[in-house]
Every structure is written in C-alpha cells, then in structure tokens.
Structure of Creatininase family protein:
Amino acid sequence: MKKVLYEELLPEEFVQRMQEMPVAYLPLGTLEWHGPHMPLGADGIQSKELFVRVAEKVGGVVLPILFMGPDRVFHDHEKSFYGMDINTEGALHTYHVQQLKGSAYWLEKELFQDYLRSIFAQLSRAGVRIVVGHGHGPSIHAFQELTKEAEEKYGLRIFTAWTYAEDEKLKYQNDHAGANETSIVMAVRPDLVDFGQVKEDESNLIGIAGRHPVRDSSAAFGNEILEYTMKTLISGIEKEYKEIKDRQN
Ligand SMILES: [Zn+2]
C-alpha cells in the first residue's frame, strides 16, 4: 500500500509523488441524509475510496474531504430546506418536505466556488497540474463550471470521474442513496451499510432517488461500478498528462 493521503505525506514524499504524476484528487463530500441505511458522509466516503485506489495505481495525492457543498434550497417562512429535504420527481417514495435527520452541509454555490478557486491557486503553487473532483452531485456541477477558468487562471486541468465515463449505468455516484450509491458503499465500506435500519413498511425509505437501495443493490454491482470508473479515470488522467507534457516540449 502506497501513501497517497496528502495530509500524511512528508515534504519529500509529496515532491516525489508530484514528479510521478502531478494530480490531486478532491473528494466533494457532504454530511447529508442518504436514507436510513447509509452514513451521512456517503458522498465523500465513496469518492475518497475511489481516489485512494486510483492514486495507488496511477500516482498523485488525495486531498481531505470537503464536507460543505451547494444544493437546491427552498425557504418557507423562517425555515430552510435543502436538497433531498424537498421531494422531487426522481424520488423513490413520495414524502412531505421536511428536514431530513443529520443533514448539515449546505453553503451558497458562489461561496463554494470561491473556496475551490483558493484551493486551485494553492495546489497550482505546490506543483499540481491536474485536479480531479468528485462526490456530491451539485458540488460536481459547481466544480465543472470552473473548467475554463482553472485552465486560464491557474494552469490546471480539472475534470471529474464522469468526464471519461460513457456508460450511464456504471457512472460513479449517479443517484442519491439508490442502488448505485448503496452498491458502491457496500463495495468500498461494507461496514457502514445497515439495511436493518430500514423499516418493514419502508416508511423511512425516503429522500432517495434512483433504483431501490435494498432490492437492487449488491457489493458485486458496486465493484463493477468501481472497476469501470477506475479504468476510465486512469486512462483520462494519462491522456491529459500526455497532452500537458506534449505542450511543454
Ligand atoms: Zn450521495
């Protein structure tokens, strides 16, 4: 096992990893209700576990998980509701607007993007040339919006685990606590999934978008998603790095 977590590296180890592959991985997390059966930090956990495995194979450093992220917001008198608090068309079961238990992650998109800009400036200064961000859906979109700016202002190529993945079914974290995300957590951190928390009548199986998390999930499917994503992401990183080197010569 290689050391890949940024915070654990000695300075010379960091320099060496940058020489091998100047890529930093940014897990875009949340602390957000992911059904009764999944951990609140499911978004960051899934992307971090993917990135650790990719970094061990292709090089680079994995940044700490960001736990704040943007999402849709709905204000009703004094109360505010975020993301999956609000029922949407893709929801597995209909439910009333409510504050889902444990969610604590929301910040304005503009503020989040300013935070990303600071991270880009600092990483560029440290020698990073590629930043891969992935995790919470709305954070991925806010990150992606900065692609042109990251290149022009900070000399960074930025992309996500979706950029080079074409198979819709196997895209990493493409639902909310449905069969896709549940299967991924079953594959990478099986100790954190507890189907015993789902009530018999499924009355607490709310705030979920995607296929049924109990009936349609499996560690095997999670591993299939993981392996597909690792393969497409690694070839994407190698392609981008080759382009960067070709441009230098
Ligand atoms: Zn999620």
Q: What stands out?
A: The chain has a mean pLDDT of 96. Strands lie at 23-28, 61-62, 73-76, 79-82, 130-135, 157-159. Residues 242 and 248 are 10 Å apart (CA to CA).
